[in-house]
Amino acid sequence: MPRRRDPYDRMMFLIFGVTPRERVLTVVAFVCEHCGTHATQHVIESASRLSSFFIPLLALSRRYFVVCSNCGGTTALTKDQAMHGVEWASHHREVS
Ligand SMILES: [Zn+2]
């Protein structure tokens, strides 16, 4: 009589994960809407990435925001606003 095969004999392990990643796109200075102080503001891109075996496969979501260096207050941005900030900052650096 043939031995019945154990269904777990050929079990495959796949490790999937969602990794959040934040990076500072640029640093600009303007009056913060939270504390009213003229302070440096970090424009940050936050992306959630789907990974398999710790290798990033694709970005699931992206969001943009500025963080005030004085009070830590955050303000959500659209992608266009974030890219405009990056463009503005790079142009300003060339001039000065
Ligand atoms: Zn502030």
Automatic annotation (TrEMBL):
Which organism's genome codes for this protein? Agromyces tardus
Record-annotated Zinc-ribbon domain positions:
31-75
Pfam families assigned? Zn_ribbon_15
Q: What is this protein called?
A: Zinc-ribbon domain-containing protein
